């Protein structure tokens, strides 16, 4: 049995010393405003995984009013989503992720981001797609006031193998 999950995550941006995307620290003059480390890639991916099995959203598993998760690394969030996937006898077939951010350009970081994500998801890098684009100067993303990531996943029951 196959199932699909989809999610999006958005965070506001402010002046800072860098952002974290798919576990990579990217030096720039911005930072995300978030309860955790603000990694929109891992947030969107984790929630898509949870959604594929109707296990709720990130707010259910990691409430932003719980100080336990204050400044938590989003890799912990993704690891937990993968643990729940495994516990439910499924595995990740592939993930396709899109990041919308006006600046900085992300092309030089994409390969490391894919590698980090594949490692945490216990899959081959060929199963992880990460792409990025701008918002052509439009809206909050285009004005560097926000960053968005979208993720879609395909998961498969281990009973099919």
How many individual β-strands? 7
Strand content: 25-35%
What is the rounded Rg?
A: 15 Å
CATH superfamily: 2-C-methyl-D-erythritol 2,4-cyclodiphosphate synthase
Our measurement of the CA-to-CA distance between the termini, rounded to an integer number of angstroms, reads: 10 Å
Point out poorly predicted stretches.
Answer: none
Count of DSSP H/I helices: 5
Give the mean pLDDT. 93
Query: Based on CA inertia axes, which overall geometry fits?
Result: globular
Q: What percent of the residues sit in helical stretches (DSSP H or I)?
A: 25-40%
- In CATH, the architecture is 2-Layer Sandwich
Structural class: alpha+beta
Largest sheet report: 5 strands, mixed
CATH class: Alpha Beta
For this structure, the CATH topology is 60s Ribosomal Protein L30, Chain: A
Biggest β-sheet: strands ordered side by side in the sheet: 4-1-7-5-6
């Amino acid at each position: 049995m196959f199932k699909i999950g989809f999610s999006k995550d958005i965070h506001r941006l402010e002046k800072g010393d860098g952002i974290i995307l798919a576990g990579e620290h990217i030096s720039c003059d911005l930072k995300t405003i978030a309860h955790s480390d603000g990694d929109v890639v891992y947030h969107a991916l984790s929630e898509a995984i949870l959604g594929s099995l109707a296990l709720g959203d990130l707010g259910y598993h990691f409430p932003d009013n719980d100080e336990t998760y204050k400044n938590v690394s989003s890799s912990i969030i993704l690891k937990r989503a993968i643990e729940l996937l495994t516990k439910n006898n499924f595995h990740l077939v592939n993930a396709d992720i899109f990041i919308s951010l006006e600046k900085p350009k992300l092309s030089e970081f994409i390969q490391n981001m894919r590698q980090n994500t594949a490692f945490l998801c216990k899959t081959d890098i060929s199963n992880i797609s990460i792409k990025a684009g701008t918002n052509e100067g439009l809206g909050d993303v285009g004005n560097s006031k926000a960053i968005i990531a979208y993720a879609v996943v395909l998961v498969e029951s281990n009973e099919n193998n």
